[in-house]
Amino acid sequence: MRYPRSIYRAFDRIRSERRGERTWPASFADRLTHPVPGSRAVRRLMLSGGMRPDLADAGRIPVRPQAALPAVADTEVGVTWVGHASCVLRIGGLVVLTDPVWATRIPGVRPRLTPPGVPWEALPHVDAVVISHNHFDHLDAPTVRRLPRDTHMLVPAGLGWWFRRLSFTRVSELDWWETVDIGPVRFEFTPSHHWSRRTLFDGCRSLWGGWVMTAYPATPGATTVYFAGDSAYGRYFAEIGARRPDIDLALMPVGAYLPRWFMKPLHMSPSEAVRACADLGTPRMMTMHWGAFVLSAETPMAPIEQARIAWREAGRDQRDLWDLAVGESRTLLRASSTG
User: Fold this and answer.
1) Is the entire prediction scored with pTM above 0.85?
2) Nearest 10 degrees: Cα torsion 210, 215, 221, 225
3) With CB atoms counted within 10 Å of each terminal CB, which end of the chain scores lower, N or C?
4) What's the rounded Cα separation, in Å, for the pair 248 and 282?
5) CB count, 10 Å around CB of 27?
6) pLDDT by residue (tens digit) across 147-178?
7) End-to-end CA distance of the chain
8) DSSP characters over 55-89
């Protein structure tokens, strides 16, 4: 029998209290760093045609679908861009999915412009999934239901009930700056300038953030990857960089940024993503959150084209900008443990 979401959330809270487990506040609205646009702003956006961009260049989005993932050596970290914020990360011997969305469409927007870069059937055994927040373009129920129920799900505080409702047995809910270890990989949940909502009535009921993942954290040969999830630009990037000066690669969102009067408190522009990368102190940036779903006013190719310009104007080495095609993979050589 299916119940309203609020009932599942209440059932989960009662279960946690009876077991003496941790419970979360009813709202995380106090974590907002900027007010979420209200109904008046949304109405203005819709009337101005702000969600109907020119899609003429959609055919230029680079797509290199893979029938199988390339091999990754023990001394490497492998990243494959599936599309939007979905990546296959192979790190420390684990296979990790970020915000997996393999669906053809999500509620409220037109069907995706490009197919997932890797067929679901081509995935190896998935050890863990990291979720940044509960928006439909980052948390897709049909995709999540395809995972084995013993997959380790790492989720923001207040969102664990959603996965336990689907019978997942290994769910770790984290607050900002908390960590969990899976084998030789440490996962740390970090702040972001965003918000959460899945229905009209559950705004900020769960937290939002990014993930710092470090292979072999106790050794000098550690390699660290940062997955930003979704975020506006702000002070948290410098704070993350100060706390974690060892980030080797940042997976950064560059799309869904126009019109700026509406999107600025919600999503970074490509130039802000490059600036955030500098705040983090990381030498490499992989672009994501573009090329799949029509979420804003910029043309489909604008995010990657503007990111390349901003990276060049910042004086950064073009080889360190991982502007991958959908389905493309790249590897990062882990630092030598003797060096």
Assistant:
1) yes
2) -30
3) N
4) 6
5) 13
6) 999 999 999 999 999 999 999 999 999 999 99
7) 58
8) -TTGGGS-B---SSPPP--TTEEEEEEEETTEEEE
